[in-house]
Automatic annotation (TrEMBL):
Residues 77-278 form the ABC transmembrane type-1 domain. Keywords: Cell membrane, Membrane, Transmembrane, Transmembrane helix, Transport. Gene3D superfamilies: MetI-like. The chain crosses the membrane at residues 12-35, 81-105, 112-134, 146-167, 188-210, 255-277. Belongs to the binding-protein-dependent transport system permease family. It is found in: Cell membrane. Pfam families: BPD_transp_1. It is a multi-pass membrane protein. It comes from the Bacteria. SUPFAM superfamilies: MetI-like (SSF161098). InterPro entries: MetI-like, MetI-like_sf. This is Carbohydrate ABC transporter permease. The lineage of its organism: Bacteria, Bacillati, Actinomycetota, Actinomycetes, Cryptosporangiales.
Length: 293
C-alpha cells in the first residue's frame, strides 16, 4: 500500500513538472510580447525583459503603428475582417447543408462525396494554392477580394464536423415525424435540424474564422499590392521596415521592435475576442456527437 501511494505521488509529481514546463514554455514568450508593447526601443533592449514599461511608451507605439504608411495597418485589419467574415458566411451557407445532406439524406454519389471530403481534408492548403491561382487567373480574379474569399470558403473540415454531428446527435425519428407532418426536406432542415445544430454551427464558424484570419500564404500569392493585404501579410511589411531585422530599412518609415510587438498583439486580438465571446458554444460544439441515439 505504501509503494502504491509512493507511485501515485511520483506520477502526479512527474505530470505536474511536465505540465509546468509546457506552461512556462508557452507563457513566457506571450508575457514578454505583451510587456514589450509598453516599452521604448531602448528600454526593450537594455531593461529587464519582464519589467513592465509605461503608458506613455504604449501610446507612442500605438501612434507609430497606426501612422505607418499613412494608416496602412487600419486598412489591413479591415481587409482581414472582410476576407474572414465573407468566407465565413459562404462556408456556413454551403458547408452546414452539405454536412446535413451527407449525414441524413440518401442520394446517388453520397459515399463518393464523403470519401472525397475526407481526402481533401488530408491535402495541405498550401498544395492547393498554385492550381487555385491558375484557375482564378483564367477568370481574371487575381488581385480582387474574391480571389481570397472564394478559396477560403472551401472548408471540408467544417463539412465533416457537421456530418459527424448530424449523424450522431439528431434522431432520425424526429426528422421522419416532421416529414409525416408535411414538412418538405428544406423545412425539415431549417426548422428542425438547424435549430438543434447551433453548437456545431458555432464550432464550424469559429474554426473557419480563425483559419481565415490567420491565413498568410493564400493572400500573399493572390494579392499583388499592399492595399489589399490582410493583417497577417501586412506584418511582413512591418517586419521588412524594422531595422533589427532589415538594417537597410532605417529611415523615416522604420518600425521599432516594440511597435512590431504591438502589431502582433493587435493582429491576434480579434481571434481572442471571438474565442472569449463564443467559448460557451465552442464547449458545447466540441462535446456534440459524443452520444448516440
Amino acid at each position: 500500500m505504501t509503494s502504491a501511494k509512493l507511485s501515485g505521488w511520483s506520477g502526479r509529481t512527474i505530470v505536474t513538472v511536465v505540465l509546468t514546463a509546457f506552461v512556462l514554455f508557452f507563457a513566457i514568450p506571450i508575457v514578454w510580447l505583451l510587456l514589450a508593447t509598453t516599452k521604448s526601443a531602448r528600454g526593450l533592449i537594455v531593461g529587464n525583459p519582464f519589467a513592465p514599461g509605461g503608458l506613455g511608451d504604449l501610446s507612442a507605439n500605438w501612434s507609430a503603428l497606426f501612422s505607418f504608411q499613412d494608416g496602412a495597418v487600419t486598412g489591413w485589419i479591415g481587409n482581414s475582417a472582410l476576407y474572414a467574415i465573407g468566407a465565413l458566411v459562404i462556408t456556413l451557407i454551403a458547408g452546414i447543408p452539405a454536412g446535413y445532406a451527407l449525414a441524413l439524406t440518401e442520394f446517388r454519389g453520397r459515399r463518393l462525396l464523403l470519401v472525397l471530403t475526407l481526402i481533401v481534408m488530408l491535402i495541405p492548403n498550401t498544395a492547393l494554392v498554385l492550381p487555385i491561382f491558375l484557375e482564378l487567373n483564367v477568370v481574371g480574379l487575381i488581385g480582387s477580394p474574391l480571389s481570397v474569399i472564394l478559396p477560403m470558403s472551401f472548408f471540408p473540415f467544417g463539412v465533416y464536423l457537421t456530418y459527424i454531428y448530424f449523424s450522431t446527435s439528431i434522431p432520425r425519428d424526429l426528422l421522419a415525424a416532421a416529414r409525416i407532418d408535411g414538412c418538405r426536406e428544406y423545412q425539415v432542415f431549417t426548422k428542425v435540424a438547424l435549430p438543434l445544430a447551433a453548437p456545431i454551427v458555432a464550432l464550424v464558424a469559429f474554426f473557419s474564422f480563425v483559419q481565415n484570419w490567420n491565413n498568410f500564404f493564400l493572400p500573399f500569392v493572390m494579392l499583388p499590392t499592399s492595399d489589399g493585404y490582410p493583417a497577417q501579410v501586412g506584418l511582413t511589411s512591418l517586419l521588412a521596415s524594422t531595422p533589427a531585422f532589415n538594417p537597410s530599412s532605417a529611415g523615416a518609415q522604420s518600425v521599432q521592435l516594440p511597435t512590431l510587438a504591438l502589431a502582433t498583439v493587435v493582429s491576434v486580438l480579434p481571434v481572442l475576442i471571438v474565442f472569449l465571446v463564443s467559448q460557451r458554444f465552442l464547449v458545447a460544439g466540441m462535446t456534440a456527437g459524443g452520444t448516440k441515439e
